[in-house]
Design a protein that fits this description.
With 427 residues, the chain is mainly α. The chain has 19 helices and 2 strands.
Amino acid sequence: MSLPMNLQTSETSPEWLNKGDNAWQLTAATLVGLQSIPGLVLLYSGIVKKKWAVNSAFMALYAFAAVLVCCPVGFQHVLRRPPSPLRRPTLRSLLARTNFYAWMLFVPMWLTFSYAVGAFSLWSPNGFLFKMGVMDFAGGFVIHLASGVAGLTAAYWVGPRAESDRQRFPPNNLQMMLAGAGMLWMGWSGFNGGAPYAANIDASLAVLNTHVCTAVSLLVWLCLDVLFFRKPSLIGAVQGMITGLVCITPAAGLVQGWAAMVMGVLSGSIPWFTMMVLHRRIPLVKHVDDTLAIFHTHAVAGSLGGILVGFFAEPRLNHLFFGDDPKYIGLAYALRDGRASAGFRQMGVQLLAMAFVVGVNVVVTSTICLIIRTVIPLRLEEEVIKIGDDAIHGEEAYAIWGDGEKLVQDRSSNVDRLAAVKPLEMI
């Protein structure tokens, strides 16, 4: 089998290909993939009730595969950068009651008709928000705000979890959750660091800022938990980690290190306040069952990062990423340089982009949910919700015993017994 003519060189690579940049992109893509499998699979599997461990992990696994198929089919020619198979925080809002078959339809439909609109508008050279000069380095608006709003909207249409799950929803395996969270954090180096498409200074700065902001955010959230609740919470620390990662994403390669630390302080405190205080006082957010607080960790943190990049973006770093266009400037530097109007304009377009992404996702996500429920129920039956994984998939996370035996529960008499179930008989 011969190589194409343009690849028949002594080193089997075309002259235009920078091997260093290509190697970093392959590495970054691998890191992003590891965030999903096994990262998010472990995180979601461990942070939910035991009876939902398989379902939560499977929903993440399915979405990874579905998005990968959708990417080359529908996104080749419209985006400045491809969509990520990772960023599906919408899932976090819908755990513990969503019909898996409805989820199978929702993922490709939302990616195609909602995500694609925002991504094209902000990242394609032909998008109107891109032309206006909106700054979103790696997806604070495009991914996190979009999925956070979509998650809350879809949660409204699906309805809440069972009351027993809402009252008590303990994680079944904190060590597994922590392992997944660690993979998520470390893999973020590839997501933000891969945004420039080159192994350059901007990529290095993006990786450094990602970790600095995240570390500060985690520590601030932890300190607030200790101060107000008198106990250091591992789940709280993971939430602070996620808000830091989300907040720095739109700004990772566009701000200095000190600004990344300031963003970490804000991402560890403002989403904490909205989750722990305002959530109980805002009727809409209070009554929509957002299972893992996606609105606060992604929509609030993503909006915060998108606004702060409009304030802290440094002109020299903007030049590295956007080129010579002078309209890209943070308000802080615009005020310093006597270009206040340019700085306020930048803040204005950032806010416009935020409003646009919110509006698109509310409307399109609602439309998708209404269409799907004409074909299949969005919500599981109440009896299935009571049982969980075994009723949905015929599998349980921790029910496998020695020699292929499975712990079987007699639903009618509520007596547990061991039944010899061979692997082939379980299929």
